[in-house]
Amino acid sequence: MKIKKPHLLAMLTTLTFACVMAQAEPVFAVKADIYQLENEITIDSKIEETLKSKAPIHQPRLIAALGKTALIEIGSTERLTALEVLTTPNGTHYNAAMKLKDKVDGKWESITSFMPNIPNGQTVYFSRNIDNSVWLIKLSGTRYESAQLGQASFKN
Hints:
Order of helices and strands: HEHEEEEEEEH
Number of strands: 8
Shape: globular
Strand order of the largest sheet: 2-1-8-7
Radius of gyration: 21 Å
Largest sheet: 4 strands, antiparallel
């Protein structure tokens, strides 16, 4: 039995396309812009206007699997700010938590702020007082159909 080459080429193309499509799984892109503000600045409903004149001091970005916890930690061996993001299995919503961790007498103590059921794509804000300044964290998470699309979103 002889296999015709056009059918073999079509079959290989179909298999290659199917393999590529099988590898593209939805992901959740997490962006955090962290600003250090003077204590005198009041954080109010005009937050976006206030931040236009400020540059972030940190901009961590990461890609997370849907339904899995993503963790960003910033700080030192004595003081940490941890941001945790957990999406729903389908990525339509996410939960966000900020944990303030300070080492006291050699042991970690923490305080947690939690925001549940945030819609995909919505931005939330956390703040923390550190050494006579306010750290404002602008956190957003968005579902993408592939890690490649999620990575590309970080360029915007």
